[in-house]
Amino acid sequence: MAVPKRRMSRANTRHRRSNWRADAPDLVPITLQGRRHLVPRALVPAYRRGLLPPPG
């Protein structure tokens, strides 16, 4: 396990933590049952196959 040799300042710690976050998923438009929906790109095949119900 990596262990820091020196103490990191509070400002550097907070700056590092503020950049570590999840990104919003890419939403792409698809047409299901004649209606247009925005769904995450990774789930498009599941929606097209009918594995997931159309989003509300």
UniProtKB/TrEMBL annotation:
Keywords: Ribonucleoprotein, Ribosomal protein. GO terms for molecular function: structural constituent of ribosome. Transmembrane segments: none annotated. GO terms for cellular component: large ribosomal subunit. It comes from the Bacteria. GO terms for biological process: translation. Residues 1-20 are annotated as: Disordered. Residues 1-19 have a biased composition (Basic residues). Pfam families: Ribosomal_L32p. Belongs to the bacterial ribosomal protein bL32 family. This is Large ribosomal subunit protein bL32.
